[in-house]
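// run 5 | inverse folding | seed 20
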């Protein structure tokens, strides 16, 4: 007569359970989630892929690691952090999402984010469009000259690159110099009228950071390091992140 073993009880091992615990305020535990749903009510990704942040957190708490690490919902989260803002316990759900993303083999992550991250690693601009420092400099100078001529009230406006000792270091969404260069100008005008001493860097000017969204720690660090190194090299005091 054959015996069939039935396993009773036993706690399911969950790496995500541990991560959630680490993230709760004041060394608390999962019971601190009040299941109030405030996170889900304001989340732009609620309902997509039949998921929402509260459900995601509960599944993590229940040790459903396979589901947590395979749901494509993690790529729908915008990392906006609205859920933390409204959560009475300040539970860092995007941190969970980040870790779930990181569990995906790199080559299986969404192509758009992956391609943009890899593009940003191609040169020192850190531009997801792959724009080189020379091309960025050319476009900025060209657009500036055009506006200085067309609008005499802005003839003294500047758009400096690598200005030593500037107070503010600005980055820039790299889509604009490539597809809509005029979109850069309103901010230049504001800074000019406010008398702000600012500069772009020829390195690390690309403001978007797809490597962060890709959950690629090394690449993310490289992008941030390139920007901040440039800001330090120029002696800037304030990093103005426009993204
Ligand atoms: S807002 Fe915070 S406490 Fe409320 S359900 Fe979401 S995670 Fe739990
Ligand atoms: S960070 Fe993600 S989970 Fe939180 S509200 Fe934004 S989209 Fe939703």
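// decoded
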């Amino acid at each position: 007569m054959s015996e069939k073993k039935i396993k009773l009880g036993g706690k399911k091992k969950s790496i995500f359970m541990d991560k959630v615990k680490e993230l709760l305020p004041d060394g608390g535990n999962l019971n601190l989630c009040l299941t109030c749903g405030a996170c889900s009510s304001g989340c732009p990704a609620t309902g997509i892929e039949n998921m929402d942040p509260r459900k995601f957190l509960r599944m993590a708490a229940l040790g459903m690691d396979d589901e947590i690490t395979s749901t494509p919902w993690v790529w729908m989260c915008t990392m906006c952090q609205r859920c933390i803002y409204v959560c009475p316990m300040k539970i860092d759900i995007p941190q969970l999402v980040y870790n779930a993303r990181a569990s995906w083999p790199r080559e299986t992550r969404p192509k758009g984010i992956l391609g943009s991250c890899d593009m940003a690693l191609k040169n020192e601009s850190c531009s997801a469009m792959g724009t080189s420092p020379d091309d960025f400099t050319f476009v900025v100078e060209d657009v500036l000259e055009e506006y200085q001529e067309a609008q005499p009230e802005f003839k003294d406006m500047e758009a400096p690159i690598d200005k030593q000792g500037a107070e503010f270091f600005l980055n820039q969404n790299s889509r604009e110099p490539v597809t809509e260069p005029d979109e850069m100008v309103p901010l230049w005008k504001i800074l000019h009228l406010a008398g702000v001493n600012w500069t772009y860097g020829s390195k690390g000017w690309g403001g978007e950071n797809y490597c962060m969204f890709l959950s690629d720690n090394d690449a993310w660090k490289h992008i941030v390091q390139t920007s901040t190194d440039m800001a330090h090299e120029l002696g800037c005091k304030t990093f103005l992140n426009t993204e």
